[in-house]
Amino acid sequence: MKHATPHRFPIGIDPGDIDFMGHVNNASYLKWVQAAVLDHWRALAPSEEISRHLWVALKHEITYRKPAFLEDDVIATVLLEKVQGARAFYQTVIRRGEEVLAEVKSSWCCIDADTKRPARIARDVIQRFFPAGESE
C-alpha cells in the first residue's frame, strides 16, 4: 500500500503552551496534531468538500520523546495512512530539526457538516491525498 505525500505544518509555540516545568505542556501536542491534520485536509480537499465535511478526532496515541521549549522551531509532519469508510488514520511526527519530540497515531471521523453524522469521502477526493490512487 502506498502512502500519501507527507504534509509539513510549522508550529508556533505560545507562552500559554509552557507548563510549570518550563517546557511545552503535553496537552499542547494534541492541539498541534489537530491543527496539522485539519491543515492537511484544507490544503488538498476541494473547497466544496471542506465546507460540506468536518473532522472529529476519535483516538490519539502519543509517544513523547523529548520536551519542546518556547523558542524552538517545531514542525509537524502529517502522513495520511489510509481512509476506510468515514474514518481516516494518520501518523504525525513532531520534530525540532532532526530531533523527534513526539510521535502520534490518530484516527478521525468525517462528519457531514449539516447532519453531524458520519460521512464517507468520495473516492475522487480521497485520491487527491494519495498520488498513486491507493487509499484502502
From TrEMBL:
The record's listing under Gene3D superfamilies reads: Hotdog Thioesterase
- The answer, when asked if Transcription is one of the entry's keywords, is no
Q: Tell me where on the tree of life, at the top rank, the source sits.
A: Bacteria
Q: Which UniProt keywords apply?
A: Hydrolase
Which segments of the protein form a coiled coil according to its record?
none
Q: Which InterPro entries does the entry link to?
A: 4-hydroxybenzoyl-CoA_TE, HotDog_dom_sf
Q: Which Pfam families match?
A: 4HBT_2
| SUPFAM superfamilies named in the record | Thioesterase/thiol ester dehydrase-isomerase
Protein family (similarity comment):
Belongs to the 4-hydroxybenzoyl-CoA thioesterase family.
Which PANTHER family does the UniProt entry name for this protein?
Answer: 4-HYDROXYBENZOYL-COA THIOESTERASE FAMILY MEMBER, NOVEL THIOESTERASE SUPERFAMILY DOMAIN AND SAPOSIN A-TYPE DOMAIN CONTAINING PROTEIN (0610012H03RIK)
What is the official name of this protein in its record?
Acyl-CoA thioesterase
